[in-house]
UniProtKB/TrEMBL annotation:
GO terms for cellular component: extracellular region; outer membrane-bounded periplasmic space. It comes from the Bacteria. Keywords: Signal, Transport. This is Amino acid ABC transporter substrate-binding protein.
Length: 272
């Protein structure tokens, strides 16, 4: 009887061992669905198209990742502030949400290699005549809560002794642009890519792009749970293949109207 039970015990132990060591990569493949978080009020990286379907550069990357894994893709709409909590809670498997790779965030989540680089920039009505970043000193300025450009602006304002009295933090990117349009603030800080998209719209025809945040390039990565090393390794290889196979350039051309700049491609190849 003991000899008959022994193989069964060992088999159960083996199954338990496999289950215990299964990681996020295994989980996604076995589930058959990738839960991919994207900020969908940040065109052209993430937005809703005319059919109210998720679209954008980041959404294309979600779909490419799902295709590589051989699974379906469930795109989840997140605010800036929900990106990290969605991973911690298990709501998302991965967030492709233009997340700046700061050392502070890396204490909570794991980052991949960079997949895009932004500039932080001012947008304001043409009549504000903003020629330099220091012209913001006496203006009402805003930005979306939880963004790196909010952090960078506030750090610069503190360094210059401006204080925070004229600053407004908005819940989302859309709220920031709405506040600018309605005159609640004189200027907002956003990314060069989003500003370029907004300036093509009728609502912002009287606005213009202003100066960049001094001495700052915003390098962003995909984020996942910090302890999912095999999953992050897979995501890193995915990003390498996106460039090597031409998918990155195809997505850039689709959403920005030109081929990806050579210096951007080289920067991503160098992982910086």
């Amino acid at each position: 009887m003991i000899r008959k039970l022994a193989p069964l015990v060992f088999a159960c132990a083996a199954v338990t061992s496999v289950s215990a060591t299964a990681d996020q990569l295994d989980t996604v493949i076995q589930r058959g669905t990738l839960n991919c978080g994207v900020v969908l009020d940040f065109p052209p990286m993430g937005y809703f198209d005319e059919n109210n379907e998720p679209a954008g550069f980041d959404v294309d990357y979600c779909n490419d990742l799902g295709e590589a894994l051989g699974v379906d893709v469930n795109v989840l709409n997140l605010t800036w502030g929900e990106r990290i909590p969605s991973l911690v809670s298990g709501k998302t498997d991965v967030v492709i949400g233009s997340t700046s790779d700061t050392l502070e965030r890396a204490k909570t989540v794991g980052f991949t290699y960079p997949y895009f680089v932004f500039k932080f920039q001012v947008i304001a009505n043409e009549d504000k005549n903003i020629d330099s970043f220091d012209d913001l000193k006496d203006l009402k300025v805003g930005a979306a809560l939880g963004t790196t450009y909010e952090t960078e602006y506030l750090a610069y304002a503190e360094q210059q002794g401006w204080g925070k009295d004229n600053y407004t933090s908005f819940k989302s990117e859309n709220d920031a642009y709405l506040g600018l349009y309605q005159g609640k603030v004189d200027a907002i800080i956003s990314t060069n890519t989003n500003i370029a998209t907004k300036l093509r719209s009728e609502e912002f025809e009287d606005f213009e792009a202003g100066p960049y945040v001094p001495n700052y390039d915003d390098v962003v990565g995909i984020i996942a749970k910090r302890d999912e090393v095999a999953w992050i390794n897979y995501l890193n290889l995915f990003l390498v293949r996106q460039i090597r196979d031409g998918n990155m350039n195809e997505a850039y051309n689709k959403h920005f109207g030109t081929d990806a700049p050579a210096d951007l491609i080289q920067s991503l190849r160098d992982n910086k």
